[in-house]
Specification:
There is one protein chain. By secondary structure, the protein is mainly alpha-helical. The chain is built from seven helices and no strands. Helix 1 runs parallel beside helix 2 and helix 5 packs antiparallel against helix 7. The protein is flat.
Length: about 150
């Protein structure tokens, strides 16, 4: 019932309770930003917290411009996924050569990955915490074995 009310509030603006009100507020914030995209200078941006889109990637591009937006996209999405794909997870799990901290950091990042697109602001610590944990525990380069 909660999901139905939130869906109803998000798409039709009808609110029945506080959970639905939250969806209505997010919908209103995004609806306020989309018409102003023509006026925003996307090359250099308009400054931090100029917009509140409740869509982190869109907010970075509108607040900070293309350069900082692509840097944020690289640090939050592309580079962590490259690190995860380089781990050869399937073989490491099969031969039990996977440290629990690495496995936990990958699972935590994947669990929080939808938050990059669904809600919040890109400047919150909760948005960066799984990424920083991933950077801490995953090796960035292969171990070299010297004879």
């Amino acid at each position: 019932m909660i999901l139905y009310n939130a869906y109803d509030a998000y798409f039709y603006g009808e609110t029945l309770d506080f959970a639905a009100d939250s969806a209505a507020i997010r919908h209103q914030a995004l609806s306020n930003v989309l018409p102003t995209l023509r006026e925003i200078n996307l090359f250099i941006g308009n400054g931090m917290f100029t917009t509140r889109a409740d869509f982190p990637l869109l907010q970075v591009f509108t607040d900070l411009g293309f350069f900082a937006g692509f840097l944020n996209l690289f640090l939050m999405l592309i580079f962590p996924l490259i690190l995860i794909l380089r781990q050869n997870i399937k073989n490491k799990i099969l031969i039990n050569d996977f440290q629990k901290s690495q496995y936990f950091s990958i699972l935590l990042y994947i669990y929080n990955l939808p938050n990059l697109f669904l809600h919040g602001t890109p400047y919150e610590y909760s948005m960066w915490l799984p990424i920083l944990i991933l950077y801490k525990f995953l090796p960035w380069r292969k171990k070299e074995h010297y004879v």
